[in-house]
Design a protein that fits this description.
mainly beta; globular; 5 strands; about 45% strand
Length: about 60
């Protein structure tokens, strides 16, 4: 996992859902796995996502 201070650089990055997001799950960005959630939308594994918010060590993503 990345250090917490490194997480801000993930804002705007493209991710792929590693697990289904229901609405919480895991995404892959540049080969690393991160915990993430959507704003209430369920997303199947393998879908493309964009990071729209970083709070601490939790990412919020939306469909691309």
């Amino acid at each position: 996992m990345q250090k917490k201070s490194d997480w801000d650089r993930l804002l705007g990055k493209i991710a792929v859902a590693d697990t289904p997001l229901t609405p919480k799950g895991q995404v892959i960005i540049e080969g690393q796995v991160y915990p993430a959630s959507t704003e209430g939308v369920f997303v199947d594994a393998g879908r493309g996502l964009r990071v729209i918010r970083v709070r601490g060590n939790r990412l919020t993503v939306t469909l691309v």
